[in-house]
Design brief:
Elements (H helix, E strand, L loop, with lengths): L4 E7 L6 H10 L9 H7 L5 H12 L5 H17 L2 E7 L2 H5 L5 H19 L2 E4 L2 E3 L4 H13 L9 E3 L11 H9 L7 E2 L5 H9 L5 E4 L7 H10 L2 E4 L1 H6 L11 H6 L4 E3 L4 H4 L3 H10 L4 H11 L4 H13 L14
Parallel strand pairs: 1-2, 2-3, 4-5, 6-7, 7-8, 8-9
Length: 335
Amino acid sequence: MNYPKIELHVHLEGTVRPRTLLEIARRNNYALPVETEEELKALYDFRDFAHFIEIWILTTNALRTEVDFRQVVLDYAEEAASHGAVYVEAIFSPAERVRRGVGWDEIFSGYCDGALAARELHGVEVRLTPDIVRGFPLDEAEQVVRYSAKYRERGVVGIGLGGLEAEFPPEPYEPAFALARELGLPSVPHAGEVAGASSVRGALERLGAVRLRHGIRAADDPGLLREIAARRVVLDVCPLSNLRTRAVRSLEDHPLPKLVAAGALCSISTDDPAMFGTDLSRDCNAAVALGLDPQEFFAAGVEGALCGDETRDRLRALGDTFDWTAVQFAETQIP
């Protein structure tokens, strides 16, 4: 049977399945370097994290209009609901689209309209946590924050930091995250994905992170890991993403069991499911194969979510009343 899931880390641009991406590219007269679904899937065989970012930029630039952004949210809400998702915190990178000539309000309105409609059409609560892009200047980072604050009443609940982690440490973005806190937007940056424990510490100490996207390299620093566990900083772990980007050599090598054994709260997410050939069930099954209890990663999702108290209470009640003992798990085959 299916069971309820909370996903706190999914990039909306990376949820677009190949057929839909080709349709959107044709609609927007955007030239992709491929013409078929099979060719597009072949592009997603990433050599490393930097290659993933290169292909990410190439493909996601097909998204151009408010209609595109709304469609992306609704399509993923429908997909996630089919895997049991009841709450999703979705990421998008507005400054990337602005650099391609799309207006800030067109981007935010499209995504926010989609998030509202997702609840009505698919029964999934969707909140939005836009990313600042590493390598972009501070003035653009602060623009992301200001527009996010403008749309707080329409579902934007936090600010992230994504992109080339190893090349761009978190510290230079401290002023943008200080502004975010001033405007009531919590900090949920990527850290500890492909860079070491120092990246995690920088995100915690300088960006005021209340939750970490990935955070798996905290396993390399026992003292830091103990601190994360003691502070109950939830880690959004994406097992199959880490495998696809070569952040880990194999699923068996993934530090997730070590994180949980140390007391860290770990939620489970897909990251970029269309690009990584995964879905929410597959990532959750991978986590179970590594020894995690789905009731516990659901509870971590409840604790880490940036929603209001009413929604959190409803999610917690769902987890408390669901019959977790009846859940059966399918074996996840990792190619």
